C-alpha cells in the first residue's frame, strides 16, 4: 500500500497508521462493504479536484471502494484517484446510458433518474465526503445528514448543521478514517 494521499500530499504518522489499520480491517470479515460516497461539483476547479483525487487515492489504497455521480470534475478526479490506486470506483449516472461516464470508473451504472440519482449516491455511502459545493452536492449532503450518515466537507460553499468541516486533505482523511475505524454497532 502506498501510504500517502498522492504524490502531492505527505501524510502525518497518525493518518498513515489509521490507513494501515483500515487496510487491515478491509482484508477481514469486519470490512466495510459499503463504499465511501465522494461527492462534489462536476465543474470543480483544480483545488477541489486535487483534493478529491488525493482522498480517493488514499482510501482506495486502504481497500475502500468509492461511489460518486460518475461524471466530470470532482467525480472524475475521485474515480481516477481510486482507480490509479488499484481500487474500485462506482459511478451512479443520471442518464439512461453510460455515454457520459468518466473514463476512470470501474463500474458505470446508468440510473435514468436525472438528478434524483443524488439520493442513491447519498444512500449508498458508509459516509459522505464532499469536496467543493454546488446545489447537487448540497442536496446529497442534506439527504445524508437526514439519514444519519456522517458527512465530511472540504472547500464547501455553505455550512450545513451536522456536517464536519475539514481544514485540508489530511484533516479530512483523519476525520473520515476516525469514522471508518469506529466499531460496528452491535
Could you tell me the mean pLDDT? Answer: 94
- Helix/sheet category: alpha/beta
Straight-line distance between termini: 30 Å
Rg (CA only): 15 Å
Pattern of helices and strands:
HEHEHEEHEHEEH
Q: Approximately how much beta-strand content do the residues carry?
A: 5-15%
The profile of the biggest β sheet is: 7 strands, parallel
Give start-end ranges of low-pLDDT stretches: none
Estimate percent helicity: 25-40%
Main-sheet strand order equals 4-3-2-1-5-6-7
What's the count of strands? Answer: 7
Shape: globular
How many helices? 6
Can you put this structure into words, describing what you see?
The protein is α/β, with parallel strands linked by helices and 186 residues long. The chain is built from six helices and seven strands; from the N terminus they run H-E-H-E-H-E-E-H-E-H-E-E-H. Helix 5 links the parallel strand 5 and strand 6. Helix 2 runs parallel beside helix 6 and helix 4 packs across helix 5.
Keywords:
alpha/beta, globular, 6 helices, 186 residues, 40% helix, single chain
Any chance you could write out the topology, listing elements then pairs?
Elements: H1 13-26, E1 36-39, H2 46-61, E2 66-68, H3 74-84, E3 89-93, E4 107-110, H4 117-124, E5 128-131, H5 135-146, E6 151-154, E7 164-165, H6 169-181
Parallel strand pairs: 1-2, 1-5, 2-3, 3-4, 5-6, 6-7
Helix pairs in contact: 1-6, 2-3, 2-6, 4-5
Structure summary:
The chain has 186 residues and is an alpha/beta fold. The protein has helices at 13-26, 46-61, 74-84, 117-124, 135-146, 169-181, and strands at residues 36-39, 66-68, 89-93, 107-110, 128-131, 151-154, 164-165.
